[in-house]
From TrEMBL:
GO cellular component, one term: plasma membrane
Species in which this protein is naturally found: Acinetobacter albensis
Keywords: Cell membrane, Electron transport, Heme, Iron, Membrane, Metal-binding, Transmembrane, Transmembrane helix, Transport
Residue span, Cytochrome b561 bacterial/Ni-hydrogenase domain: 8-181
Topology class, membrane: Multi-pass membrane protein
Recorded family membership: Belongs to the cytochrome b561 family.
Designated name of the protein: Cytochrome b561
UniProt-recorded Gene Ontology molecular function terms: electron transfer activity; heme binding; metal ion binding
Segments passing through the bilayer: 12-32, 52-70, 90-114, 145-165
Biological process according to GO: respiratory electron transport chain
Cofactor (UniProt): heme b
Amino acid sequence: MKNSSPYYTRTAQMLHWIMAIIFIAAWLIGFYSGNFLSYDVDGSFKGQVISLHKNIATTIIFLVVIRLFWRYTHPAPQLPDSMSATMKVLAHLGHLALYLMLLALPITGCLFSWSAGHPAPVLYLFEIPRLVQDNPELLAIVKPVHIYLSWFAGFLVIGHLAAALKHHFIDKDNVLKSMTRQK
Ligand code: HEM
């Protein structure tokens, strides 16, 4: 199925920007807690910051299911003809990697929390039912995986942003507009 419109649908645009804000906010809060706060010095404040990180980030799990369904049923606009075949492949691989991060980070984050004996709360409203109990062996795996994936995702998002700005200001094509406009 090909999309003949040069623009993403309104729904796809809204999902993109809402998830971008949530993802970047969760990333910054997680990074702040993981690298600038310690339980010894900051005590319960660190606990509150991690809780905020989780309550925001778990929403991605629900949104990504809707987003993947929407992406499957509403194909993306074509990339500009001015892009080389190699650049098109790189763009598709970059997008695929971003989708994988939208799945892998919340999943490893929940496994990280559960295996450490903590909940995975959503918007301070409810908790995702625990799929694993306290498990130090699993924790030793999912904790570094969550942290390394989060750094990888940080570089991917920076690359994605840089590519969008290059398309808009240097190539002067329709790529950024396809995610912001309808006409
Ligand atoms: C979009 C989803 C997510 C993103 C982008 C993300 C990003 C991050 C980042 C950047 C860090 C800091 C890494 C470091 O120490 O350098 C982190 C840590 C952490 N994340 Fe996530 N995360 C996400 C989802 C989740 C979820 C859903 C949970 C749990 C329900 C979670 C639990 C944690 C915990 C417990 C830490 C350790 C914080 C600390 O040690 O202070 N994350 N995350």
